[in-house]
Design brief:
Layout lengths: L2 H32 L5 H12 L8 H13 L1 H10 L1 H23 L4 H31 L3 E2 L5 E2 L3 H4 L1 H25 L2 H32 L1 H7 L5 H19 L3 H23 L2 E3 L3 E2 H4 L3 H34 L1
Helix pairs in contact: 1-2, 1-3, 1-6, 1-8, 1-12, 3-4, 5-6, 6-8, 8-9, 8-12, 9-10, 10-12, 11-12
């Protein structure tokens, strides 16, 4: 396997980790915005306790993706930051507002008007940010971002505002809400657990509906991606994602919450992995492939040598963080 392919696979793995872990956090904000009924405040308290001190750490996976793109695929990084300048900056604004609103709501004055205001900001930022990230994934597959031989980038707002990126953005948002609701069924009990179970079933239904909508859009606007999903490389992965989705829904219906959590994680990971395999060999279709966008071999080799050292520090630290705070919640 070529060095650039190894780095591309590593970047996709980091993107999957971000989609699962940060996706659940974004979904927590969506559920905060959607909290209703006599247990509205209890639902929001449960979301705060579940996210707690671990939610901000999940952005480390996005930082990894950015660093790998910048270091190993500089042409693609340049083209993406130029073509998607507006949505990327809106994502940064959304992430910043989420963090500020979460802190001010949690540690600020506990007056009803203050809590309501910051809850709205936190929820709105949690809706906008994953929606925009999904749009960006759709944009790189749509063929509307063109990169010339002289590295000149041609793109308009239509590259991320056409029907396909909008549909993928909505699908990613619904998957985030589903992940969060399923996770919260494990971390709550009694009436609260039933509240989140109903939210999970509703958001899962939306995921199925949006998936059905996205398929004809893929065939029309991104035929290369549609045929890639039907290739021998991506079809087994995507099919396993569909099976995981069905298993997650069945486990949730049968109130087998830990199984539902495991299969929902597999669902999101396999869907994102299937997208990456279907998109290969392109980073930005149709002008920038993994090989054409790659940095010199010396740079790729240096990154591959340094990543294990970084992981040796990062993974145990994250494990300890989750162990301390999630273990305390389980106890």
């Amino acid at each position: 396997m070529k060095l650039e392919d190894v780095i591309a696979a590593l970047t996709l793995a980091m993107l999957v980790a971000y989609g699962v872990l940060a996706g659940a956090d974004f979904g927590g904000g969506v559920l905060t915005l959607a909290a209703r009924g006599p247990r509205r405040d209890a639902q929001r308290d449960a979301i705060d306790e579940a996210m707690g001190p671990v939610w901000e750490a999940n952005h480390v996976w996005l930082i990894f993706v950015i660093v790998l793109l910048f270091s190993c695929f500089p042409r693609a990084f340049t083209a993406l930051t130029v073509a998607l300048f507006t949505p990327f900056h809106l994502v940064l604004v959304g992430i910043t507002l989420r963090g500020a609103a979460f802190v001010f709501r949690h540690y600020g004055p506990h007056r009803e008007d203050t809590l309501a205001r910051w809850s709205t900001v936190f929820g709105a930022a949690s809706v906008i940010t994953p929606f925009l990230l999904g749009q960006c994934l759709g944009a790189v597959s749509s063929g509307r971002i063109r990169v010339g031989a002289d590295a000149a980038v041609t793109a308009t707002a239509a590259s991320w505002l056409s029907p396909l990126p909008l549909a993928i953005g909505a699908l990613f948002l619904a998957m985030c809400a589903y992940l969060a609701a399923v996770f919260l069924t494990v971390e709550t009990d009694g009436d609260l657990r039933e509240d989140f179970r109903r939210r999970a079933l509703a958001s899962g239904t939306v995921v199925v509906g949006l998936s059905g909508l996205a398929i004809p859009l893929l065939a029309r606007e991104a035929p290369h991606l549609f045929h890639g999903l039907l290739s021998t490389r991506a079809t087994p992965v995507f099919a396993c994602g569909v099976v995981a989705a069905l298993a997650s829904g069945a486990a949730l219906w049968g109130r087998r919450y830990r199984l539902a959590r495991a299969t929902s994680i597999a669902q999101v990971a396999l869907v994102l992995g299937g997208w990456g395999l279907a998109q290969y060999p392109y980073i930005i279709y149709p002008d920038l492939s993994v090989t054409h966008a790659a940095a010199p071999d010396g740079t790729l080799r240096f990154v591959l040598w340094t990543v294990p050292f970084g992981m040796a520090l990062l993974v145990p630290s994250l494990w300890l963080l989750f162990r301390v705070f999630k273990g305390r919640r389980a106890a």
